[in-house]
Each structure stands twice: as structure tokens, then as C-alpha cells.
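Colleagues,

Please find the record for the two-part complex below.
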Amino acid sequence: MTERVTEGHGGGGRQMNRLLDDLLDGFDGSAGGVTLHDRDDGGTIPLAEGELVVTTDSHIVDPLSFPGGDIGRLSVAGTVNDLAAMGAEPLALTCALVVEEGLPRETLKDAMDSTREICDKVGVPLLTGDTKVMGRGEVDGLVTNTTGLGVADPVVRDSGLSRGDGIVLTGPVGRHGLAILSEREGFEFDGLESDVAPLWGAAEAALETGGVTAMKDPTRGGLAGALNEMAEKSGVGVRVRGEALPRDAAAESAAELLGMDPLEVANEGVLVIGVREESAEEVLEAVRGTRYGREAEVVGEAVEGQGVVLETGVGGERFVRTPERGPLPRIC
Amino acid sequence: MTLRYRDRETAERLSERIEDLIPDGPVKIIHVCGSHEGAVARYGLRNLLPENLDLVMGPGCPVCVTPAEDVDLAVALVEDGRTVATYGDMFRVPGTEKSLAEADGDVRKLHGPGDVESLPEGSVFFAPGFETTAVTHAAALTDWPEDVHFLSSGRLIPPAMELLWGMGDLEFDGFLAPGHVASVIGLEPFEPFEESYSVPVVAGGFEPLDVLAAVLMLVEQVADGRSEVENAYPRAVDEEGNPAARRLMDETFDVETARWRGIGPVPRSGLRLSDDYEHIDARRLDADTPEPRDLHSGCRCNLVLTAKETPESCELFGEACTPADPRGPCMVSKEGMCRIWLRHGGPP
């Protein structure tokens, strides 16, 4: 039987990782800094001072507009956050559009208005782009691709955790994926909105303390995937205290009703920050002083061993594993 | 905000009480329900239990215990040109040669029997399930389209518990019975365990405190040397069960010896459509099926389903056997032990 790509291969979980193991084998992938094979949030090119960080994202979200955001805001925030998670101040973005013939011009204009608005807020220019139109049914509405350039000095990796480091989470998890799923299924949860937001402000504040050891933005694969990746790449285990996780009542209700685990659901406005033990409170205070970091908490720590263990709300313990595949397609 | 049945302090008190009461030496409690395993794994409840208390899972996943021959029949009917509809959990369950997902033809996932009206003439609804699902099937069959066939793979829980008890090579001290099943059938079908087998049975719910409370009641019985049928889920389970639902099941299905995947035939455990429904019984349709084979090479679902092994003892687990490419049924359903453990792991 011919092996074919399935939805799960794009889910940001273990299934996707296995596909990438196969596809990326043989690429050199290095420009002297962080490489393709590091599978961090971006790759880097060393400069005279610091490193140029390059990251790219495609966006296939359905629906194009959802509670809390739309594809334009998502495109910019997603790319800015990949740069931020590498410790890079965003310098410029590109944006390529693939549009389905018949898409209302207004829809496209709305998406670009929202792209512009968020670029202005972050203070990052959209430097160049590309526009293609495909026939009806050949692509669903609108697909975007954004590339981000930034400079980091030093670069922050997702592999920098050491035993004893604290884990700071900048806000409640699960809101993005659950808001989109609810919109798609026609459920209304009072107050449930995507968290989609640019996080350079929160990252910058954390970096200024000098106590940051690692960062990652937990998008597809959720917090479960991000923490496992950080733990594995860093050669440590992670313990998370369930009671310390920032909470969002609407997201919790939605997750319960829809049978999802918020830890496995995609986020677009949350950073996981590894911090030196002695800097944890300082980082927390700095992050809480930023617009999208007000609900930040120290949720756990890096420990000897491997894997991610959650102390559950009732005081039990379980492993948190990288999801086999994301629970939802077309989420970002 | 903490939900009432997830309160940490109460959980700690229950946990301490279990620790206080448990006798010395190993105590093993077996449950037979994917929803119980889901709660135990999700809330990490094994870590709240004493070290000498082993809480294990038996054949508690309807999709997992549906024999390969039933999957084969559904596959053959699809490849004969019929539309086959079933639950999403059944879709990737391997048959002898292929799963419905791999079958060549029109296979549809339905949320339940309420959607069968949408199926084309000559379709087949493939209906696995324990008592809780069988009731919804029985209710739907009272107003069933004449041109849609029904493939009954329903199974009953108490006979499977009797089989586990009778296996002899599996020693355990009590049953945590599924509360939702008890809410349908009541407590009476569990009485043989009290009267003939002298093993405690406690019906429990599915929130973490429900599970801990039921385990505490079982440990109390073990400590006292009692073997009674008790109800730890009174907010849902009535001693009589649901008489209307029981009557409906009795009218719709005949009970017969039926095969459980990887386990073999279990007396009085299968639900066959009664003669009134002969005209829509999919088992009467002609189909060319292979000699059935429940287990594929290396798969240990039979041992997992009978609480003899944990998923992690299987070399295929999470490697050659994943939800996207399952070797055995326990990796397919969200009620399957392997799938649950792949998601939440065993106790850390």
C-alpha cells in the first residue's frame, strides 16, 4: 500500500516528528548557529554581535476569524513568538498569501488590516511578500506564510534547562485551540477567546533579568509537547504542579465538555520560560508587568531524570506525554 | 474553583483512610472500565494508593473486546458495496486482514444510532458496546429504518467479571464495578460474586473522589473479611438499576455465548438481536470472511485485557503500535488501556 500523508502528520506531535525524521535526513541544515536539525523555534546565523534568527510559519486556520483573533493576527503573533522564544527582538516579517478564487475581497482586506494593526503594535515592519491565487476548491479560502527575522544576543534555546531551574508559564493554556474548536462546533462558552498575542514584550522583560535559561512557545502539541521537548533536549526531567497552573474558567469548562486535555491543546499567546532558581521571583515579577504576562506563575521545576510529571489537582501524579498528534487539525 | 468531586483535601483524607485500613501483604483490585482507567490515569490516582495496593484494568473497552471476526464481517460487507457506519473508535481496529479504515468502500463514522436515518438503503450499523451503549441501541431499534441492517456486537460486563474470577491464574481481592453499567442493570447481576464467589464488588463513579471512595469501600471489605455488593455511586446508581432500560434490552436482545477478542468465548455475555429483528440482522447477510485471527504478531492485548500485563511490558507499545498505526485494539479506542497509557503513562 502506498504510504500517504495523513492529518496527524501535521499535528505537531510524535507522528509529525517521525515524518520529519524521514524528510530532513541528509540536509546539512547549518549556517553556523542553531541548525535545522536542532528543531528549535528557528535557525540562526552568527553575526559579529549576536545572531540573526530566522523562523517561518504557514497558517491554515479554519475559520479565518475566531473569538479573540483572525488569521492576520495569528500570522504575525505566531512568527513574532517564535522569534521571542529564541530571545530575538523582531526586526522584520514577510508575508505570502495563497488565496482561493472567489474569496470576498473584504475578507482578505480584513485579514491584512489585522496583520498591519498587530505589526504596528509590535513595531515590526512587513518588509516583503507574495500573492498567489488558486482556483476554487484548490485551496480553502486563505493560506498565509510568514517568515520572521530577528537578532538575539544571546540566543535562548529550548534545550537550556538545568536541574533546579524554575518553569514560568506566562498565562493559562488551551485557550486558542479550544476557542477555535468551539467556534467550529457552534458552541458558545462565555468568555472563551483565543490567547493569540505577540509575546516579545514578555520575553524581553524576562531576558532583561538575566535569569532566563530556556524558552519555548507551546503551540501545536500544547504545553505537554513543549515541556517534553524542552526536558528531552535539555537532558532533565520536569515536574509540574497542577495547582500552580494559571487557570481560565472558560477554557476549563470547554475542555471538560469537549473531552480535551488543556495541556495538549495549542496556544498562541503563552511562553514557557526556564529560569535560574534564584531568579524565578524576579522573572515572574518582570513578566507580570507586561501586557500578556499578567497571569504568569512559576508552575514547576527541572529535576534530575527524564520525562514530565504532573502533580494533579487531587494530589496524584502522572506522566504528561507528547501527544501522538494534535487533537485538532487546522488550528494555526 | 474546584469541583466537588475533585477536591484535594477530601482526596487526601480518603487516601489516608485507605492507608490506615489496608491489611499487610499485597491487595489487588480489578476494574473493568476504560472510563475508570481514564480517571485513574488522568488524575494519577495510583500514587495516592498504598504501595501494596495494585489497581489493575480488565477487559473494559467494548471496541477492544469485539472479536476480529466481527470486524471482518463489517469489512466484507463494505467491500461488497454496502455502506457500513460505526463509532469512530471502531474505525481503526484491526480485523484479521484489515480494519474498516483500510477497507475499500463507504465507511462512515456516526456519533450514535440516532444518525442512522441518514444512511443509504442496505447500509449496516456496526454496534459494539457494553450495557450503557446497548441501551441506546435498544431504544433506537424501537424505531429503526427497515432498510438499515444492525450488526450487534454488544457485550455484558458481569459475565466477563465472572470469567476473570474463574481464570484462576489471576488472583485479586475485589472488583471496582463500572457505575454507569450499574446505573442500567442495577446491583442484582453482581450478586453471584457475593453469594457464590465471595469477592467484594463496589460500583463506583468516574470522578477522582468517586474512584477513591469505591477503593476505600473495597479495602474496608477486604480488611473486614467481607464480600458484599456495595454502591459507592448512589447519586447515579439505584439498586434496581433502570427497570425500563432493562426491560427494553430484554425485549431487543437475546443473551448468548460470545467471543471476546483475545480472550475467547464467554458464556451468557453477548447480545444477539432477538427474532423480532431478524429482518435487519446483519449476521444473516452473505459475506466472505477470512479465518479469524484476533492477535497480530507481538500484540499482547489479550494479556493487557485480562490484567496480566501492563501496556509498558509490550515491545510494540508506542513504537510499532501507535493510535495512527495500531497493531492491536487496545491502542485504538480512547477506552483502551494502551491508548490511555500512551497518553498519560503509567504511575511515575
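The helical segments of chain A are 14-24, 71-85, 105-122, 175-185, 200-208, 222-234, 249-258, 280-288.

Comments are welcome before we finalize the supplementary table.
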